[in-house]
Amino acid sequence: GLPATLPALPLELTVLYNSLLFTVGASDSAIKEEPEAIRQGLLRVLEACGTCGQDLGTEELWEKVLQEVTTEELQASLHRLGALQAAWWLAASRLGSVAGLFQLLSSAEDPGGARCREGPNELISMIKAWRVPPEGASLPLAQSAETLKEILCTAAAFLQGLQELEAGNFPTALSLLQEAAGGFCSKKILAQIFTCLGCCAQQMGKPQMALQHLKRALQVDFPCLPALFHVAAVYRELGETDAELQALTLLYEALGKIPSAAASSGPCLLMQTELLVNSPVLTSLLRHRHPSEVKYLLAQRCLQDGRVANAVEHYLDFLSLLQEGLQQQVPLDGSSALPRIPEVFLETASALEQAGRHQDAITVCEEVISRTSDLVPRVFRGEERLEQPERSLPGAEVAGGLLSQQESLRCLAWRAAAYLHQGWAWAKLGQSKEAVTQLSRCLSDLLRVQLHGCAVRQTEDLQPEVEVLQKIRLLSLIGRGAQFLELGRHKEALLDFQHSLLISPGDPAAASYLVQALWKLNRKQEAAAQWQKLCQSSPGEDGQQQGQGRPLPLYLVSCLEQAVFPHSEPLARSIQDYLGPAAQDPSS
């Protein structure tokens, strides 16, 4: 409450400087709010000089103070307070305000040379050019202004590097991040900078450089586990699956060992670089993965690479994690690597089938069927929204008590795919009748939706789901037709293969099975004609047909492989014998 006086202001501003530093040191959240105390301190300075600035904003207030207050005794304490103000603005990503403030600070020191600063980055050059005021022996500081200047330089380079990285200006981002890596910071921040350098190099198409930076991050601070996750991503890009899986395994093991809180490896400072760098892109790049996410990635990559035994082990381990309340531990906002839970069950069933554990696959699929039964409507019309049932799946898209069209189609696809997997599993067990029953249930489910209805076609959002349903329908028709052949029900098999070709004209598996069905029905001339047509198709057509549309969900890939016609050579020989020597060369 005492009036401001010039002799007391240096001590008053120094106390303010120290108290703000202690406030930040006591609570990280303090840096997120504009410090009113700085504004009050500047107003006290103006009061002592016989002027006022109550109506001015903080930036205008700084401009007025630094331009009008020329008292030599106040310059050092004002400059230190200005650097602290810059820290608050930097934490709020107000780079223009920071640059303007240092322009004013430099003008106060050297009016003639303030605008002559040039360098690779104007803001960093301005901060570096700022001459730190000398510290008075009688006025101890909680943190030196020289240290604060170095922290500001590092944070400015880091923050701008992240902004350029987010904007896709990778060479500029790389340069700024390298500048930050040479600055003053803790090992934790240095590891984060190297991680960002690695991600930047990866975006630039330089995977080896990316690996060097990411490995450096782990050498500096191994608890920087996001770097290990990005190492696995780079190895995947390089096609080095063994190294990728090793990195993911190491990451999973490291996540399982919760480290005790280690003391800071750097000097104990109240204002630190990590407090000043707040960026969504940094949060995204450094997002810590839940162990279950890494376990799922291990399972997925093993399945994709054909390492079936390992895939089964990882998938079963993952399913056991569901008992630990996985839904509460992993975000469902799209940032997680996890798919929807029914898809994980279906992928598990696919892995079990490929491992020859068909009965286990059937059991897993039964779980999907039971959990989705209440979610699939009796009749689906694209123009209707569906009432939300009492039971719903985690992450289901529900608005106003209604289940969206897209979510309904997904539930339908999951249940139909479960029946499809059960059908193929029963077929592998030699139970053709049971296989036909399950595949018929799959087809019956798919009749609930008007796949060619105008209401579904009108929205692009539903197209991925419609394509998946069409592929499931194709695979179930081929599978049921094949089992009809095993049961000697050749006419029914022929109908299924004909329907398959209506869904996917030219599909090589359906066309080959159609030839076999015609042959078994003793319609050999038609079979031979279809076979010749199939042989005359260009080699690229089949691959093009299989690759149309979007990539298949992983849980359908094994079904697609099982649908491949297995008797091509014997059937070809039989037809060639029927046609005679002229047919030995199909191209003749």
Explain what you see.
With 588 residues, the chain is mainly alpha-helical. It has a domain at 1-109 and 119-133. The protein has 29 helices and three strands. It has helices spanning 9-26, 36-48, 58-68, 72-91, 95-109, 122-129, 145-167, 170-181, 187-203, 207-220, 225-238, 241-256, 273-276, 280-285, 291-304, 308-321, 326-329, 341-354, 358-372, 405-428, 432-446, 454-457, 463-486, 490-503, 508-520, 524-536, 539-546, 554-562, 568-579, and strands spanning 386-387, 398-399, 402-403. Strands 1-3-2 form a three-stranded antiparallel β-sheet. Helix 8 runs antiparallel to helix 9 and helix 16 (308-321) packs antiparallel against helix 18. The longest helix is centred in the C-terminal third of the chain and has 24 residues, at 405-428. The chain is elongated and about 110 Å long. The model is unreliable at 113-119, 260-264, 382-392, 395-402, 452-458 and 540-547 (pLDDT under 50).
What Rg do the Cα atoms give? 34 Å
Q: Which structural class do the helices and strands define?
A: mainly alpha
Sketch the major β-sheet. Answer: 3 strands, antiparallel
Number of β-strand runs: 3
Number of helices: 29
Query: What is the molecular shape?
Result: elongated
- Side by side, the strands of the main sheet go 1-3-2
- What is the strand content? under 5%
Low-confidence stretches: 113-119, 260-264, 382-392, 395-402, 452-458, 540-547
Organism: Regulus satrapa (Golden-crowned kinglet)
TPR repeats: 474-507
Protein name: FANCG protein
Domain Bacterial transcriptional activator: 423-535
